[in-house]
Design goal:
heterotrimer, A mainly alpha (496), B mainly alpha (330), C alpha/beta (265), A: 496 residues, mainly alpha, ABC transporter involved in vitamin B12 uptake, BtuC, 3 domains, 21 helices, 2 strands, 72% helix, globular, C: 265 residues, alpha/beta, Rossmann fold, 2 domains, 6-stranded mixed beta sheet, 4-stranded antiparallel beta sheet, 35% helix
Chain lengths: 496, 330, 265
């Protein structure tokens, strides 16, 4: 992750780079959408615009002064600190809290999968282990919350370390399958009769006492909450309002607790990555034998990577239980905490702490935004998976470094290069086919008929948009198919 | 004891289906080193296409063709000079010819879709690294699953079966007609696959392309085409498995193949991801094991045993029982 | 020639892979400060020998001692810390890293901060990192790689990648440097220049160099001693002049040009 560089001169330094423009536009659109969507809180929306604008000016000033791209961290930190005030209601604060918790999980996943290249699709089980450990300690043995969380994190850390040892023996795809199996077994074991006394079975376990903000902080936060009381409760009886305030104070307090942990976690993850350990992890992934000859104990590093990622997963799990105050086997289904994290990590950008943050943000807010869009069409909600999948495929095939990776890469790009690249991409034959297929599928979906004649029309459409030699006849075209994106022989330097 | 043999037969029948899907996984793994997590969803979606074909259709949606007739392929009774072309007919009026047509049409569509997926989605992401490819198949998984959920809803739909009569009594055990049919089709498919790969030139070319792409290119084999063929075949086989699974469970639903895929994974891993024989043996073992566990231990244990088995076997033998060891190159 | 004073002492190394004997009772010594060429036709076992010395392979029989210590009891990852680093025949760089980062990995065994203080970038971590960076930049400067230091290795020209590998091996402060076909893919003038550079490198960094190479002119031109392998056996050793006139060597290379421009297969 190279973010420094003397990349612009003179007056140009005051103009946002393409990458910055993209991020700011996204941020603006996002805030506009969330606030605009509610339609009744113009001022809150405006204030966000103002915050973003200030961040921009401040950021550009810092960038000019330091000639450094790291101002983004400042912008992100600023926005995160202000999040409870920017949020419209307590629910949004809770979502932001989960973003922070989730980013910790992604940092951990990044160490084991992004840096070391060991594919784990089973981190949900580690998160669950930690969450359940806290829950059982608190619920069953009446431990206070904090020591219980510490114990759970230590347990998960040790468990992850132990898990890394058998993982050493498994080559990539086998490890992926084994971890999927682990993620699948975990919720099933929780539901077994023999452990129901501890785990609460399908019902799960509830945390009855979330941490309360200590006196003066609580008072401060309650004062801050006045603007956050929902419109319909503004004129409710006093006790309802008090309750709302307390809820806000509580959520904000939890948010800042998680913010502290996430800040430390992100800081540590970033430093670890640019230390000799991060380099050794990547070396193990890129060329194991060469790493060995450079003095890297590859087995130890792989196991350590597992341990570190389990540590992060454990922290995330413990915090998750504290924040949500509830665990049930359903929370740990395959997609929710095992596959989605890795999917969003990849979308955000592997092997970059920024990628984990972006990924966590997308993971929690993507569905919310989709829900908002879906207000008019309830069916659209169901297509959320399709959107995630589409994003995954597009990111994987077109920008393997993920959003963050492309963002930092964009800095060295001129607009002209960007336009040329896009043009070439659109004009390539593969993309023409993509469009044709997409169009065909759209037509079929729109008509709502799935039977053979439609597919015939679809196939005919494919012929129409086929490259020029299609006119020489179907068979010629079929014969030309293999030429599209013929399999590339791997270059000597390619990582596997 | 009778229940034991009954269960054994049922297990073998389910196992044959697991083996089919596991074979599809093995194909793709051997051809492209990709673990195709979307295999089950592809099969599910294609099965839905088969279901759509089997529905009574109305052409009236084409405005300029306004054919008001409703066509139901299942209830198609073709005649030549007044003589019925095909006699097999179920009590509900559906014919086996209709079913056969649906199967052929669906498998053909699956074949094309498998190839298209390889060409348009897998190939651009190939050669980067393993993680990319797996993520892409997860992406396909998510897309297909959610489109199916969106179009067809989560409620299971009835799925046509060619044989739905009483169980056949073999003396030692009884087996439902559909299970028997699935078992026969499964075994026949395995045999066909064996013949294709071991006895035909095309099969040899596919194997060669998977084993050593560079050398195969030099021998004049179009490896790109072979990979596409591998995906097409895998999709077609998976689709067949899906069409056999659907009637034996509550019917077709978007989560139809999720469980089956996981058992197929167990089977493939049990046998070794790169071993076709392993997939067959693994499939039967997992199928029989599952029914036995359900029968004698309890249904809540069946999944735990299956996934525990995956983990346990990999711990003992990291590439499965029949899998070839991973060679570490210096 | 196998006096006990040798820096590296290889005795009776035998290794076979499923029936194929790759090295058969090979012994030789490398004197401190020498450049020793290890040559032989393709498949003679030269790279296998390197892999035995760096412990990537475990020989069936024999012993290897370095500086008087037994090397075979050292794990593969401990070799670099003993003062032996190497390059690889078919490039084994870390393709997704920059040139500088690659060279920093070469210093892995020289750094010893713990992960916890690394995570919080405590002052001593920064200090160590700064030192490592300075050393890496020195070596890059020495090998003329400074203009490439921030480029991702994948995609750099082959010749540059080769140099990066040398830099990565050199930065680990080795006593013994193993170079596996450093001249692969170079043209005639570049090979001549490389010979000069290797000699200069030895003098500047006080190295002992063991060299596997196909370019006879290069090996004969710079080596103090030459060891010839054929089908896993040592068939000759001595000064370049002695070896060139050895009938066994001439026979092994029959039909292969001995001087200059040899095939770099």
């Amino acid at each position: 992750m190279k973010m420094t560089g003397n990349y612009r001169q003179g007056i140009e330094r005051f103009i946002p780079s393409p990458a910055e423009a993209v991020v700011l536009a996204t941020l603006l659109f996002f805030t506009w959408y969330l606030y605009g969507g509610t339609g009744n809180d113009v001022f809150a929306g405006l204030s966000t615009f103002i915050v973003v604008a200030i961040a921009w000016v401040l950021g550009v000033a810092i960038r000019v002064a330091l000639n450094d791209m790291r101002w983004w961290l400042l912008v992100i930190a600023l926005l995160l600190v202000m999040a409870p005030w920017l949020a419209l209601n307590t629910f949004q604060i809770a979502v932001m809290t989960e973003v922070l918790v989730f980013s910790l999980l992604l940092h951990g996943l990044n160490v084991v999968t992004g840096l070391t290249g060991q594919m784990s699709l089973g981190h949900g089980a580690l998160v669950g282990l930690s969450a359940y450990a806290v829950a059982i300690l608190v619920d069953h043995w009446d431990w206070p919350l904090l020591p219980a969380m510490a114990a759970a994190v230590a347990l998960t850390f040790a468990f992850g370390f132990a898990l890394g040892i058998p993982a050493l023996r498994l080559a990539g795809p086998y490890l992926a399958i084994a971890t999927v199996a682990a993620a699948l077994v975990f919720p099933l074991v929780l539901k077994l009769d023999s452990v129901q006394d501890y785990t609460g079975g399908v019902q799960g376990l509830r945390l009855h006492k979330q941490p309360q903000p200590p006196g003066f902080i609580g008072g401060f936060l309650e004062n801050e909450s006045i603007a956050k009381i929902p419109e319909q409760k503004k004129f409710a009886p006093e006790e309802v309002q008090v309750k709302e305030r307390q809820k806000f104070a509580q959520a904000t307090y939890l948010y800042f607790l998680c913010f502290g942990v996430a800040a430390i976690g992100t800081f540590a993850a970033w430093n670890l990555q640019r230390s000799r350990f991060g380099r050794a992890f990547i070396a193990v992934r890129d060329a194991e034998v060469a790493a060995t000859s450079m003095g890297v104990n590859t087995a130890l590093y792989k196991v350590t990577a597992f341990g570190i990622s389990a540590l992060y997963a454990g922290i995330a799990g413990a915090l998750l239980y504290m924040v949500v105050a509830f665990v049930a086997p359903e929370s740990f289904d395959l997609f929710n905490l095992s596959i989605n994290p890795i999917a969003y990590l990849v979308i955000g950008g592997l092997a970059a702490p920024g990628g984990a943050m972006v990924g966590a943000f997308g993971y929690k807010w993507g569905p919310e935004v989709i829900k908002k869009i879906a207000r008019t069409d309830t069916d659209f909600d169901k297509l959320q998976g399709a959107l995630t999948g589409l994003m995954l495929i597009v990111v994987m095939t077109r920008m393997p470094q993920g959003v963050w990776g492309s963002l930092t890469r964009l800095n060295s790009f001129s607009w002209k290069a960007l336009i040329n690249e896009t043009k070439a991409w659109v004009l390539s034959r593969t993309i023409a086919y993509w469009l044709a297929i997409a169009l065909g599928v759209a037509v079929v979906i729109a008509i709502g008929a799935w039977f053979a004649p439609v597919w015939g029309v679809f196939a005919a459409g494919l012929l129409v948009v086929a490259p020029q030699d299609a006119w020489a006849g179907v068979f010629l075209w079929l014969r030309s198919l293999p030429a599209i994106g013929r399999r590339r022989a791997p270059a000597p330097g390619d990582a596997r | 004891m009778e229940t034991f043999f009954d269960q054994l037969a049922i297990g073998a029948s389910t196992g044959a289906l697991y083996a089919l899907l596991a074979l599809a996984l093995v194909f793709i793994f051997r051809a492209t080193d990709i673990v195709n997590f979307a295999q089950g969803e592809m099969a599910m979606f294609n099965t839905y296409i088969g279901w759509s074909i089997s529905r009574p259709l109305s052409f009236s949606w084409i405005p300029f063709l306004s054919i008001e007739r409703h066509i139901n392929i299942l209830n198609w009774h073709p005649e030549v000079f007044g003589i019925p072309l095909f006699l097999g007919s179920e009590s509900d009026g559906s014919t086996r010819l209709g079913y056969l047509l649906i199967v052929i049409g669906t498998v053909a569509i699956a074949f094309v879709m498998g190839g298209l997926i390889e060409r348009l989605i897998i190939r651009p992401s190939e050669g980067k690294n393993l993680l990319n490819a797996v993520i892409v198949t997860l992406g396909i998984f998510a897309i297909v699953n959610s489109i199916a959920n969106w179009r067809y809803g989560p409620v299971p739909q009835n799925y046509p079966a060619p044989f739905k009569g009483n169980a056949v009594d073999f003396g030692l055990f009884k087996l439902g007609q559909h299970s028997l049919f699935a078992l026969i089709v499964g075994v026949a498919m395995m045999f066909a696959i064996y013949v294709f790969f071991q006895r035909t030139k095309l099969g040899l070319a596919v194997r060669a392309a998977a084993l050593n792409p560079q050398a195969s290119e030099l021998m004049g084999i179009n490896t790109g085409q072979m990979l596409t063929l591998g995906w097409s075949l895998a999709a077609a086989i998976g689709c067949l498995a899906g069409m056999l699974v659907a009637p034996s469970v509550a019917g077709i639903s978007p989560n139809l193949m999720l469980g089956v895929l996981l058992y197929a994974f167990a089977a493939a891993v049990l046998g070794g991801l790169d071993s076709a024989l392993g997939a067959v043996v693994g499939g039967l073992a997992v199928g029989i094991g599952q029914t036995m566990v359900v029968q004698y231990i309890g249904s809540e244990w069946s999944d735990i045993v299956a996934f525990g088995l995956i983990i346990g076997i990999l711990m003992v033998k990291p590439t499965g029982i029949f899998g070839s060891p991973v060679v570490k190159k210096v | 020639m196998t006096e006990a004073s040798s820096l590296l002492q290889v005795r009776d190394i035998t290794i076979s892979f499923g029936g194929l004997v790759a090295l058969d009772n090979v012994s030789f010594g490398v004197e401190k400060g020498h450049i020793v060429g290890l040559i032989g036709p393709n498949g003679a076992g030269k790279t296998t020998m390197f892999n035995c010395i760096t412990r990537l392979y475990k020989p069936d029989r024999g012993s290897i001692s370095f500086n008087g210590h037994d090397l075979l009891s050292v794990p593969a990852y401990g070799i670099a810390a003993r003062g032996i680093t190497r390059t690889f025949q078919n490039l084994a760089l870390f393709p997704t890293m920059t040139v500088l980062e690659n060279v920093l990995v070469g210093q892995h065994h020289l750094l010893n901060v713990d992960p916890v203080s690394s995570s919080f970038r405590l002052p001593h971590v920064s200090n160590e990192e700064r030192g490592a960076r300075a050393r890496a930049l020195d070596v890059l400067e020495y090998l003329g790689l400074t203009p490439h230091k921030d480029k991702i290795v994948r995609g750099l020209p082959y010749g540059i990648q080769k140099r990066v590998e040398t830099a990565r091996a050199l930065v680990g402060e080795p006593t013994l440097l193993l170079l596996d076909e450093p001249a692969g893919g170079l043209n005639h003038e570049e090979v001549t220049r490389l010979g000069q550079e290797i000699k200069a490198m030895r003098d500047r960094f006080n190295l002992t160099i063991l060299l596997v190479e196909h370019h006879m002119s290069l090996v004969m031109g710079i080596s103090d001693r030459v060891v010839v392998l054929d089908f896993g056996k040592r068939i000759a050793s001595g000064t370049p002049a002695e070896v060139q006139n050895d009938p066994a060597v001439v026979e092994a290379y029959l039909g292969v040009e001995m001087n200059g421009g040899a095939a770099n297969a």
